[in-house]
Design a protein that fits this description.
- The structure is a single chain.
- The protein has about 375 residues and is an alpha/beta fold.
- The chain has 2 domains: about 10-235, Aspartate Aminotransferase, domain 2 (3-Layer(aba) Sandwich); about 235-365, Aspartate Aminotransferase, domain 1 (Alpha-Beta Complex).
- The protein is about 35% helix and about 15% strand.
- The protein has 12 helices and 15 strands.
- β2 (about 70-75), α4 (about 80-90) and β3 form a beta-alpha-beta unit.
- The longest helix has 19 residues, at about 235-255.
- Bound molecules: pyridoxal-5'-phosphate.
- Pyridoxal-5'-phosphate binds near residues 52, 54 and 175.
- Its cofactor is pyridoxal 5'-phosphate.
- This is dTDP-4-amino-4,6-dideoxygalactose transaminase.
- Keywords: Antibiotic biosynthesis, Pyridoxal phosphate.
- Belongs to the DegT/DnrJ/EryC1 family.
Amino acid sequence: MIPITAVDVRDAEPLVVEVLRSGTLAQGPMVARFEDGFARAAGTAHAIAVNSGTTALVATLQALGLGPGDEVITTPFTFVATLNAILETGATVRFADITREDFAIDPDAVATAITPRTRAILPVHLYGQTANLGKLVPLAEEHGLHLVEDAAQAVGATFAGRPAGSFGVGCFSLYATKNVTTGEGGVITTDDDDLADRLRLLRNQGMRSRYAYELAGHNYRMSELHAAVGIPQLAKLDELVTARRRNARQLSVGLAGTPGLALPVELPGREHVWHQYSVLIGPHAMLARDELITELTERGVGTGVYYPKLVFDHDCFRGHPQIPEVSPAGFPVAARVADEVLSLPVHPALSESDVDTVVREVREALGA
Ligand SMILES: *Cc1c(COP(=O)(O)O)cnc(C)c1O
């Protein structure tokens, strides 16, 4: 079976052992080292490590002062953490549809969703390609809104040569399957010294120095063991991205012209880091998406559906006081993509022959 994800952190062993021997397990020098490396990769003055991508988003929205009565505009086509983070702050969510080309929030749809209560735009750089920051950044500036980038899937991606997470406040996940992982973890990137200071306080119970509290905080800290797992990956980030890009290119060349299949594209000016290689199975394909999944599983090719439903389309969110009444029909592009999307293996552990196998099996399954 060729799996949809593979985790390889074996080269972290010496650093993890170093932490075990040091006896310093909670946030300390290894976390600081990880933060320095991450800030360099993201091209920002600050990187604040936290214990998940979700808490990165929550802490950011809290540090920006968002709360009840404020509105945050985001995409309905994302992992639930994006939505949960907004709900946790007490703010109201407004959704805007996506564009089919990048699977990310459509700046024109964002513009029409802005109200006098809007405080932030929260695009998600889905699958490893940034949203249309060329339009979102000026839109946020024009309306005096915060831009919070959910860059959980996009470490190393760029827009106009600038790294994801350096346009607004960047929120990254280091979950086990993400392009850079610490097992569980997250990072916030920013150039804003005051915001970074507030985030560091929030992360550690609002504490400036021992038992001197400046604000009501939380425990969002990363452990030394987790930081040690991530450090070697930052050192070889270019190599990891290059492998994903090579695999994506091989998939795109091999799958070109497969009937019923729409392939993902790297848009001009954007460098895609291929967290996922996501195709669309159109209505004229020989197999429906779910039939193709079964067929590929039998043929030994792992796949994933990210995400089968719009994020609000679950009973627990219906009638939620912070979610306006919405239905998938209000977001036709996202609704259609959720029905058609399928991710194929693209991770760095694949060999050239693995990718050839994926191409061959998909083509055969679809009668190409
Ligand atoms: C993974 C992910 C998150 C949440 O990160 P965790 O580290 O799992 O908390 C948020 N947003 C998106 C788009 C993600 O893919």
